[in-house]
Amino acid sequence: MDQNCVMIRILLAEDDDVMREYLTRALFAAGYEVMAVDRGTAALPYLESGVYDLLLSDIVMPEMDGIELAQHAAVVAPDTQIMFITGFAAVQLKAGETVPQAKLLSKPFHLRDLVAQVDAMFAHRKVSEQN
Predict the structure, then answer these.
(1) Longest Cα–Cα distance in the chain
(2) What is the DSSP letter of 86?
(3) Domain of 109?
């Protein structure tokens, strides 16, 4: 990647260790910079101190759920896009009502589906970086 290009930065909040590792590897392999944390509260300082293009968060997590985290992100990092991942249909409905601008990806999903959704969110930036 050209040194003048700014990598798209993703903040991943996922409490499942295996899922977090898989997601991190897949996104990194697709050319994204990923900071991964194991819970919503651990993501807070990164949202407040860093510039992330995407908050990719599980919804159901201990201490602070993904919806609360997204609401906090909307205040401290309003330009950060949000995508939720969850396996709970009822939680999806709540997320859609509470954070309507967020994308939702239902578990189980294939890693290529996740990467395709993230690519689509930032297609305009990837094209401008190549020019």
Answers:
(1) 44
(2) E
(3) 9-126
Own/partner contacts of 4-8, CB < 8 Å, gap of 24 or more, are: 5/129, 6/129, 7/31, 7/32, 7/33, 8/32, 8/33, 8/53, 8/54, 8/122, 8/125, 8/126
Is residue 14 included in any domain, yes or no?
yes
Structure tokens at 127: 């094209």
The pLDDT tens digits for 21-52 are 999 999 999 999 999 999 999 999 999 987 89
Q: Are the C-beta atoms of 19 and 45 separated by less than 8 Å? A: no
Residue 91 has φ and ψ, to the nearest 5°, of -70, -35
Does the model's pTM come out above 0.85? yes
Question: How many separate domains does the chain show?
Answer: 1
What is the domain-level CATH number for residue 26?
A: 3.40.50.2300
Q: Which amino acid is at 76?
A: V
95 in Cβ contact with 74 (< 8 Å): no
Using DSSP, how many helices (H) and how many strands (E) does the chain show? 6, 5
For residues 131 and 70, give the distance between their C-alpha atoms in angstroms, rounded to a whole number: 32
- For residue 115, the surrounding DSSP H or E stretch is helix 111-121
